[in-house]
Automatic annotation (TrEMBL):
Belongs to the sigma-70 factor family. ECF subfamily. Residues 204-231 are annotated as: Disordered. Keywords: DNA-binding, Sigma factor, Transcription, Transcription regulation. It comes from the Bacteria. Residues 125-176 form the RNA polymerase sigma factor 70 region 4 type domain. This is RNA polymerase sigma factor. The keyword Lyase does not apply.
Length: 231
């Protein structure tokens, strides 16, 4: 979907005709709800919580469409709302689900396994648990960069943070995640793939950044990924 289509859709969302606004909103939800859902899901983990957040996101979009001025792309604007809503939920729930992570994360593992966020592989569960241990905002940075492969310039708009600060935050998060995964999975040679400063170059070239076919994905220091057999 190109930027021109989004501009037209944004104009229709601000139309004076209620029927036109409603039709545009339905199209917007159909176009972006799945992408927003999976970003939110990676941050909040629970399917139920993700559904609630996504509903709140699109309610906010509906009620504040007139405030959209086109200073960023329409999807970037929605993305920013989604990340902020996700962070608010994570912070409010910190004493619940995520407080158990340092005690072995049993409840966290049950959600990860039962709701199909990952396929149950030990390395994947360890990765999910490690990301869950990150502070809320650092988790969002890791999610946008590692899983969504979002360029830093776009992340800067979404998170209202400088590119330099985002790079530092991502590298700190990646170091923590690597350490925790290696600790939790005996013999796992897990490395967050190295990245290029060029926003056009993806963070990793693997379609599944965690594992596939009984292997753990690891960085080879060139911006690409290679497979390392689990011991």
């Amino acid at each position: 979907m190109n930027q021109t289509d989004d501009i037209r859709l944004a104009e229709r969302l601000r139309a004076s005709d209620p029927g036109e606004r409603e039709a545009a909103f339905v199209q917007l939800v159909d176009r972006y709800s799945q992408r927003i859902y999976w970003t939110v899901r990676k941050i909040v983990v629970s399917h139920h919580d993700a559904d609630d957040v996504v509903q709140n996101v699109f309610l906010k979009v509906w009620h504040s469409a007139s405030a959209f001025r086109g200073e960023s792309g329409l999807f970037t604007w929605i993305y920013r709302i989604a990340v902020n809503e996700s962070l608010s939920l994570v912070r409010s729930r910190r004493v619940g689900l995520f407080s158990s992570l340092d005690d072995g994360g049993a409840s966290f593992d049950r959600i990860v396994s039962s709701e199909g966020l990952f396929d149950g592989d030990a390395a994947e569960r360890a990765l999910a648990r490690a990301v869950g241990r990150l502070p809320a905002r650092q988790r969002a940075v890791f999610t946008l960069r590692y899983w969504d492969q979002m360029p830093y310039e776009q992340m800067s708009v979404v998170l209202d943070t400088s590119v330099g600060s985002l790079k530092a935050s991502y590298h700190h998060a990646a170091a923590k995640v690597e350490q925790w995964v290696r600790r939790d999975v005996s013999g796992a040679d897990f490395t967050v793939c190295d990245e290029s400063d060029d926003p056009a170059v993806p963070v990793h070239s693997c379609p599944d950044p965690v594992s596939a076919g009984g292997t753990v994905r690891s960085g080879n220091g060139t911006g690409n990924c290679e497979e390392t057999a689990k011991k």
